[in-house]
Design a protein that fits this description.
It is a single chain. The protein is an alpha/beta fold. It folds into two domains: 246 residues, no CATH class; 47 residues. It is 43% helix and 15% strand. The protein contains ten helices and eight strands. It has a six-stranded mixed β-sheet with strand order 1-4-5-6-8-7, sandwiched between helices. Strands 2-3 form a two-stranded antiparallel ribbon. Helix 3 packs across helix 5, helix 8 packs antiparallel against helix 9 and helix 8 crosses helix 10. It is elongated. The chain starts with 5 loop residues before the first helix and ends with a helix.
Length: 316
């Protein structure tokens, strides 16, 4: 793998944010991202279990009842020991992550029907991981694990009842306050990559899987199709934020904020121009003259004439 130019990446005002779910899924949930996903999971699980391989599977669950709810997971995979894993990059400030995790667990288990005579131990273990940019718990650590527990009943102490379903909550908002000597070294690297890809410590820059992630992030940031999808997602997030129905916190510094706003303006302009072109083509097909099309579409006469020539040439 060619050595990355990290100085170029740090000065790239168009670099996408891995903390946006669209980018996160492209980096860790695509079919060519297995090594990145394995590294990320092992940094979180720290050998319990140690993952050697994953199979990344479709993430959409369509409703199975008339008034049910269809959901699309960010990342779903099956590990080499058969454990089901779900990873969610949560952009929205929500207060019900445990409930959401329980619902996802129930939905994933729809694929596993217990037949007469089957043992319940055949149900696969599940690991659900939520990475958030906000504080969603009152705990001090940036990473917490929840399992089914026995409560203190006055006779018996608190204890673990089962670990077949494990829920991890990682709050990136607490990353800087955390004593990182208490977590896996690569977990610190991946969490900083997701939150601040331009501020990675030099010790991570020579790790092949991290170089691969940075290289892919740089490629996606300058891919036209990916950029449009990213802009669409960001526009949606900002529009929802401005409507005050939800608050989005995606960890932007001032320079990144300016860059994103500039990108959104460009995205809106490109979308408006594309809509104008479609309007003009429709009017041309119905025989409208150039002046009328200019008035309705907002395009210049020169643009409309070029479109007219393209339509004529394509029809020949």
């Amino acid at each position: 793998m060619p050595k990355i130019d990290y100085e170029k990446i740090k000065n790239d005002n168009d670099l996408m944010l891995p903390s946006v779910d669209y980018v996160f899924c492209r980096l860790f949930g695509s079919q060519n991202s297995k090594e990145r996903l394995i590294s990320l999971l092992n940094s979180i699980l720290v050998g319990q279990p140690h993952i050697k391989d994953v199979t990344i599977t479709p993430t959409e669950y369509r409703k199975d009842k008339k008034y049910g709810k269809s959901i699309r997971l960010d990342i779903k995979a099956t590990t080499d020991n058969g454990t089901l894993v779900n990873v969610e990059m949560q952009c929205v400030d929500v207060k019900d992550i445990i409930l959401r995790a329980e619902f996802i667990n129930a939905v994933m288990l729809r694929d596993y029907t217990i037949q007469q005579g089957d043992e319940y131990c055949e149900i696969p273990d599940r690991i659900i991981i939520w990475i958030t940019m906000q504080d969603v718990t009152e705990r001090k650590s940036c990473i917490n694990e929840a399992v089914l527990m026995y409560k203190d009943n006055g006779i018996d102490p608190i204890g673990i009842a089962a670990e077949h379903l494990r829920i991890f909550i990682i709050e990136l908002s607490k990353l800087e306050e955390m004593d990182m000597s208490k977590v896996d070294n690569m977990l610190e690297g991946w969490m900083n990559f997701i939150k601040h890809p331009k501020k990675l410590d030099n010790k991570y820059l020579n790790i092949p899987v991290m170089q691969d992630a940075l290289s892919e992030l740089e490629f996606l940031s300058h891919d036209k199709e990916a950029r449009q999808a990213y802009n669409d997602r960001m526009i949606h997030m900002y529009d929802v934020q401005s409507s005050n129905t939800k608050h989005y916190e995606i960890g932007l510094n001032e320079g990144e904020e300016i860059g994103i706003k500039k990108g959104l303006e460009i995205g809106r302009e490109e979308g408006a121009k594309q809509k104008a072109i479609e309007t003009a083509k429709m009017m041309l097909s119905k025989g409208f003259n150039v002046d009328d099309i200019v008035d309705c579409s907002g395009l210049t006469a020169e643009d409309v004439i070029k479109l007219q020539m393209e339509v004529t040439n394509n029809g020949q």
